[in-house]
Amino acid sequence: MPHKSARTLLALALWASCAAAQALQSDKAQPIHVEADAMRYNDVKQTSVFTGNVVVTKGSLVIHAAKVDVRQDPDGYDEATAYGSPDKLATFDQALDAQPGQPVPTLHGSATQIRYDGRTDVLTFTGKATLDRLSDGRLTDRAQGDVITYNDLTDIFTVVGGKGGVAPGNPTGRVRVMLAPRTAPPVAKASGPALKVSPSMEAKP
Q: For residues 96 and 106, is the Cβ–Cβ distance under 8 A?
């Protein structure tokens, strides 16, 4: 059983490992580092609050926020929330797994609040939420709205529009999704002779 104060870092590690689908498997084995101007731990409430230019790193994952609040509920489930502001959003970046020889895709997300719920394995971006997928630094997919949720267990994400989603790139706050076309794999050529219609199957007048 880990020491109570160590659980806060464990919660951050769980949050980091569930931040995106198909995240680099090597990230799970990486140590977690937290930098902040100040930290306050409450043993009774089981909370740790990091404030002031908070930076959380775990392998390829990097989170920037004004404040990060980590807490544990009575059942032992952890919850971590990163706070930004309308002028300076909380952000996260993480590399994804790729096939050998293929470009490594990355995810970039931003919102006024980013929350991970350890009980449900759901990551939620709230307020001016944006989730981008990039390949070699080129934007391929984008989702925008007031609230974006990603369920790590079901691999399903949802986007909800609203006034809280109004941003320079989304003046109406409505759901906006951009999906780049996927290149279809080349079709293998037949190695044998071309098939011919059997005379018995030809259409008769």
A: yes
